[in-house]
Amino acid sequence: MALSGKQKAAMLLMSLDTMTAAELLRGLPADDVEEIAMELARIDASEQHDLREQARVAREFYNLLQQRQAQRFSVRTFLSEMLVGILDKDRANQIQSQIRETIEKKDLFVDIRQAGTDELVLALEGEHPQTIAVVLSELAPKKSQEVLGLLKEEARLKAVCKMTNPELVGNRVKQQIASTITQRLKSLKGETLVERPEQTLRKLAIVLSGLEKEMRNQMVDEIAKQDEETATMVRHLMITWEDIPSVADRSLQEALRTVNASKLAMAIHGADEEIVQKIRSNISERALATLDEEISLMQEPLEKEVLDAREEVVKPLRDANEEGKLRVKGR
Fold first, then answer.
1. Cα distance between residue 70 and residue 171, in whole Å
2. Residues 135-156: pLDDT tens digits?
3. Which tens digits make up the pLDDT trace of 10-30?
4. Which of 31, 112, 142, 285 is buried most deeply by CB count within 10 Å?
């Protein structure tokens, strides 16, 4: 027999911890709470306590949630569909409003977390680095990394610096940030990023870097005949700061020997942890001690200083690539 709405609700509540279950029931009319409580008692006391059926109901709930998230999750729509099987439409609407208010009070960033990556990047465009840092810190690590990778380089660096040197941000400021970005996301619903020229050239550069040296140089020379500036950019984009984790250890060790400790210390300031660890693991113990000393003595660098230092670290890698001596994993 098909389960009623109240039976499903009871089974779902049995899958939750006591506090969460109580929070979901809060605000329901006493009669409805009593009926669901009776269903809970019947299930617990009878052979109907089927763990497989309970898991099926939980999966049904989860699948509905996933579907709504894929379509930009709407608390109002979701709760209407779930509660209408238990209550009449008017009461379901009343309860969904109460629950939505509760959710928004507890989690100001709920809509931001559920937004698409492209939408988030567009919403953060032109925002203050502190705003970007706050939003990134509220996202899951994987999504935060995706968004960070799509931001413009200057904005990305400033935001990372804010995250590595966090300032105290009060609840009122967080609320303002959440409200501003949430409103912007509503106007950007479904929009996607337009690929920037450097992204297109980066793809071309990676393809060319995998070719034999003579063929690669021939292709780049051909580009230079049309546009020398574009050819130079393609050469630079063959190896970037973000490629360091993929560079073979021996190639990286040879390149790092040509970079002085003060420049290296500045280059890794605010850098991704994977890059920092890759660099630290490919210098000698003596060089590592010198690097740590430079870091301890270094003042807060300017963004341009960090970018220039990173270019100095990457330059010997590019030179090795031009000579056909650089080894990069996956190419």
1. 29
2. 998 888 888 888 888 888 888 8
3. 777 777 767 767 777 776 777
4. 112
C-alpha 70/C-alpha 66 separation (Å) is 6
- Contact present, 156 and 148 (Cβ < 8 Å): yes
Amino acid at 298: M
pTM above 0.85? no
- What pLDDT does residue 51 have? 66
Residue 278 near residue 244 (C-beta atoms within 8 A)? yes
Count how many residues are written for the chain: 331
The residues, any chain, with a CB within 8 Å of residue 18's CB and separated by 6 or more, are none
Local confidence band at 110 (pLDDT 50, 70, 90 cut-offs): confident
How many Å apart are CA 270 and CA 5, to the nearest integer?
Answer: 52
Architecture of domain 197-322: Orthogonal Bundle (1.10)
The span from the CA of 321 to the CA of 209, in Å, is 8
Q: Tokens representing 198?
A: 């450097």
Q: Where are the alpha helices (DSSP H) in the chain?
A: 5-14, 18-25, 30-45, 51-70, 75-83, 89-106, 110-113, 117-124, 129-138, 141-150, 153-164, 171-187, 197-209, 213-226, 228-237, 249-256, 261-267, 273-280, 285-297, 303-322
In the three-class reduction of DSSP (H, G, I as helix; E, B as strand; rest coil), residue 327 is classed as: coil
CATH class name, domain 111-187: mainly alpha
Q: What is the pLDDT of residues 47-86, one digit of tens each?
A: 555 666 766 776 776 666 655 554 444 545 555 555 555 5
Tokens representing residue 15 in the block: 């899958």
